[in-house]
Write a structure and sequence with these properties.
Blueprint: H1 3-11, E1 23-24, E2 36-40, E3 51-66, H2 74-85, E4 88-98, H3 104-122, E5 129-136, H4 146-155, H5 163-168, E6 177-185, E7 188-197, E8 210-218, H6 221-233, E9 250-260, H7 265-288, E10 296-304, H8 307-319, H9 321-328, H10 334-343, E11 355-360, E12 363-369, E13 372-373, H11 378-385, E14 389-395, E15 401-408, H12 412-419
Parallel strand pairs: 4-5, 8-9, 10-14
Antiparallel strand pairs: 1-6, 2-3, 3-4, 3-9, 6-7, 7-8, 10-15, 11-12, 11-14, 12-13
Keywords: Acyltransferase, Amino-acid biosynthesis, Arginine biosynthesis, Autocatalytic cleavage, Cytoplasm, Multifunctional enzyme, Transferase
Site (Cleavage): 207-208
Pathway: Amino-acid biosynthesis; L-arginine biosynthesis; L-ornithine and N-acetyl-L-glutamate from L-glutamate and N(2)-acetyl-L-ornithine (cyclic): step 1/1; Amino-acid biosynthesis; L-arginine biosynthesis; N(2)-acetyl-L-ornithine from L-glutamate: step 1/4
């Protein structure tokens, strides 16, 4: 399949979804053969694990998607260069607690020191190592005891479960985020697994979030890159916790290339669907673990004139502090939603056709239509918003474009967590 045909296949929004079900499996990244992981405390954080390693003893093809923030962590420049120069890597090392961002020439040097140190312990080449960092911005890294810590990291490698690594990449997260699924392509069992971190500074175009995905399906670097980009756009780029985008966002996808199938359009669509599925699982877990969050919120927009308007409105509503605090207060303040719709400045909008509803397991309530508010049962609205899983449904009544993005409420705890982040 040519690259132009591949691009058409990936971007075809009308492609029929494949009915093959995924089976959840245990082990996280280690559900895939030839994937070893480790996680230790190394001193980047005051306590808890803060250094993770994903090791591919037989090598893996790796691709990546990175932050669109104009300020970028030193690791991103390093990783982009490596990924542009080669396809195969043997290790990904991640530290949490220090973002290694805006640290001058020392920041670049430290990334190389980290890669060199790990390479010497694993007896591989430094250019076979990718580095990632997350944490406090603008604090120089202290690598004085790094050699000893990497010794421990390498010694603790296991093929049993990736929980240690998932824990080690966390910062303000309260929950470990990992998943693994298995599915069939052409009669062969394919595995796909992920770990992720993220809780605050989360916004479409990614946020302070890292995610590492591993599969055993051999598709080649160029195809994997296009598939990852498409899946990220349908998952991590559809979430928001607080509207802030981090300089450290990184999503890496690695393939051990053990399973080979003919790269037909159908097979690529199946894998694309499953990759998006697991990316959405991680993205939704990040939102559910939003700093101080008590509610998971879906903002569902339909009836837009085009996809750009649908996306712009959904993201504006999802990032509105006024909407998010109203949801926390269980207040069906549809006026705040309406204001956010207008603030998005869509190209096509007829205010008289807008309908806004709040939905949960407790029911559904329509709050406005025909250009004016409706009288509704405030007690029922309060009950609907008392649930932990809520949908804000917006019908623009103009066209056929639609989208759903995910966010959470905003609470007092969000302020407390971020006010005390460096203490």
């Amino acid at each position: 399949m040519s690259q132009s045909q591949l691009a058409t296949t990936i971007s075809n929004e009308n492609a029929e979804p494949h009915p093959l079900a995924s089976q959840a499996i245990s082990g996280g990244l280690c559900a895939i053969e030839n994937v070893w992981v480790s996680g230790v405390h190394s001193g980047f954080k005051h306590c808890n694990k803060d250094l993770a390693l994903i090791y591919f003893p037989k090598g893996a093809t790796v691709v990546g998607v990175f932050t669109k923030n104009a300020i970028q962590s030193h690791h991103i420049k390093y990783d982009k260069k490596r990924l542009n120069e080669q396809a195969t890597f043997k290790a990904i090392m991640i530290n949490s607690g220090n973002a290694n961002t805006f640290n001058g020439p020392k920041g670049d040097t430290d990334v190389q020191i980290m890669a060199n140190t790990l390479a010497s312990k694993l007896k591989i080449q430094p250019d076979e190592v990718l580095i990632c960092s997350t944490g406090v911005i603008g604090v120089p890294m202290d690598l004085s005891n790094f050699d000893n810590q990497v010794d421990t990291l390498a010694h603790n490698l296991t093929a049993g479960d990736s929980i240690q690594a998932a824990e080690a990449i966390m910062t303000t997260d309260t929950k470990i985020k990992q998943a693994a699924i298995a599915f069939e392509i052409e009669g062969q069992l394919v595995h796909l697994a992920a770990i992720a971190k993220g809780s605050g500074m989360i916004h479409p175009n990614m946020g302070t979030m890292l995610s590492y995905l591993v599969t055993d399906l051999d598709l080649g670097q160029e195809t994997l890159q296009q598939l990852l980009k498409a899946s990220v756009n349908q998952s991590f780029n559809k979430i928001s916790v607080d509207g802030d985008t981090s300089p450290n966002d990184t999503v890496l996808l690695a393939s051990t290339n053990k399973v080979s199938v003919k790269p037909t359009k159908q097979h690529i669509l199946i894998f694309q669907e499953k990759l998006t599925e697991i990316c959405q699982m991680m993205a939704q877990e990040i939102v559910a673990d939003g700093e101080g969050a008590t509610k998971f919120v879906t903002v569902a927009v339909k009836g837009a004139a085009d996809q750009a308007d649908a996306e712009g409105i959904a993201k504006q509503v999802a990032t509105s502090s006024l909407v998010k605090t109203a949801v926390y207060g269980q207040d069906a303040n549809w006026g705040r939603v309406l204001s956010a719709i207008g603030q998005a400045q869509p190209d096509y909008l007829d205010p008289t056709k807008i309908q806004i509803s709040f939905i949960s397991e407790k029911g559904e309530i329509l709050t406005c239509k025909n250009g004016q508010g409706l009288v509704f049962d405030e007690d029922l609205a309060y009950e609907i918003l008392s649930e932990t899983d809520i949908t804000i449904a917006i019908d623009l009544g103009i066209g056929k474009s639609q989208i759903a993005v995910w966010t959470c409420d905003m609470t007092e705890d969000y302020i407390k967590i971020n006010a005390d982040y460096r203490s």
